Amino acid sequence: MGIDPGLTRCGVGVVEGRPGAPGTMVAVDVVRTDPEAGLADRLLALDEGLRALIDAHRPEAVAVERVFSQHNVASVIGTAQASGIALLAAARSGLPSATYTPSEVKNAVCGNGTADKRQVTTMITRILRLTEPPKPADAADALAIAVCHLWRGGVQARIAQAAAKERIR
């Protein structure tokens, strides 16, 4: 499951597959919160929405876009809060989680860490063999995060496992 964290719109994409092969989209959704509601209520609604999707789809892992510095400080704070809720929802469900920077996701799906949103949407539509681009952009981004983890997460886990075995020796 890939999550594109946002306080107003939080994209969620579920894919299945294996590294090196195109995945299959299982589900795509956007958890929305009311911008007029208080912060605590919005965070609670986000948590409830994400946990419901985790319960419904039973992913093996959760990947979340890592918060990065933006010019709009208020926006990055909301994104960071949503990211924390996403990671907490994964932990409460006993799922492993990983985070990826936007450039890591773009590089994984487009081969270019500076790709724009249109390029990411086009590539994720092709990779998952969708008949039309997922909308809104938060949904396409969430699917891209899921594909990034599908392709890179397994490799990273094997490297970490090998490193741990080496330390034991």
From TrEMBL:
* Positions annotated to bind Mg(2+) 1: 4, 138
**Compartments, record wording:** Cytoplasm
Annotated GO molecular function terms are: crossover junction DNA endonuclease activity; DNA binding; magnesium ion binding
Q: Provide the Gene Ontology terms for cellular component.
A: cytoplasm; Holliday junction resolvase complex
Principal subcellular localization = cytoplasm
Q: Which cofactor does it need?
A: Mg(2+)
Protein EC: 3.1.21.10
UniProt record, GO biological process: DNA recombination; DNA repair
Q: Give the catalytic activity.
A: Endonucleolytic cleavage at a junction such as a reciprocal single-stranded crossover between two homologous DNA duplexes (Holliday junction)
Report the InterPro entries cross-referenced here.
RNaseH-like_sf, RNaseH_sf, X-over_junc_endoDNase_Mg_BS, X-over_junc_endoDNase_RuvC
Looking up SUPFAM superfamilies in the UniProt record yields:
Ribonuclease H-like
- Similarity comment text for this entry: Belongs to the RuvC family.
Oligomeric form and interacting partners: Homodimer which binds Holliday junction (HJ) DNA. The HJ becomes 2-fold symmetrical on binding to RuvC with unstacked arms; it has a different conformation from HJ DNA in complex with RuvA. In the full resolvosome a probable DNA-RuvA(4)-RuvB(12)-RuvC(2) complex forms which resolves the HJ.
Name of the featured protein: Crossover junction endodeoxyribonuclease RuvC
> Which organism is the protein's source?
Glycomyces terrestris
Q: What is the name of the gene encoding this protein?
A: ruvC
